[in-house]
User: Which sequence fits this backbone?
């Protein structure tokens, strides 16, 4: 959901801003509505050979675990540019073969989009330049391990739900072709 034009910012945070606006109700009364806004985020499924590169990541206050590479877009930064920057910062990898797989609004009351890209045939071009609050070790997994990780809990993300659906329909081959173009 996008913010209405009449919304006014009532709080500015480091990541989240809060907006409010008057909303006419069905009975003619007016109520104050509000929404959270934040910059968009990108996630990357990075492939190298027949493997998928994931991050074994830790951030302060969070348990270490596997995740897709990615992060926040800079203000007014195009999503693909952000994905390329995040991939290089977190892994030192780059790709010449990118494809947007999915974009969605995860939450109704938040002005925020997530963009999921595949970066095929990645190559190491630099050393990672992690933020001070990131610890990321790269882990190479097979397609089957990737699917098992995401389908072990369908609530993990949109991708988990999607892979569970493909697995149930016995149609994971089409997704594998999308990732590896073979």
Assistant:
């Amino acid at each position: 959901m996008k913010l209405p034009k009449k919304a006014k910012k009532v709080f500015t945070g480091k990541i989240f801003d809060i907006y409010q606006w008057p909303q006419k109700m069905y009975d003619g009364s007016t109520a104050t509505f509000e929404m959270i806004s934040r910059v968009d985020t990108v996630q990357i499924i990075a492939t190298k050979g027949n493997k998928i590169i994931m991050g074994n990541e830790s951030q302060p206050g969070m348990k270490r675990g596997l995740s897709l590479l990615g992060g926040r877009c800079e203000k007014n930064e195009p999503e693909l540019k952000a994905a390329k920057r995040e991939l290089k910062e977190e892994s030192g990898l780059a790709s010449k073969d990118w494809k947007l797989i999915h974009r969605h609004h995860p939450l109704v009351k938040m002005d925020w989009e997530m963009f999921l890209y595949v970066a095929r045939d990645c190559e190491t071009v630099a050393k990672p330049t992690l933020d001070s609050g990131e610890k990321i070790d790269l882990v190479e997994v097979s397609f089957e391990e990737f699917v098992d990780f995401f389908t072990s809990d369908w609530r993990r993300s949109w991708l988990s739900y999607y892979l569970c659906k493909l697995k149930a329909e016995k149609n994971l081959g089409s997704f594998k072709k999308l990732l590896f173009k073979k």
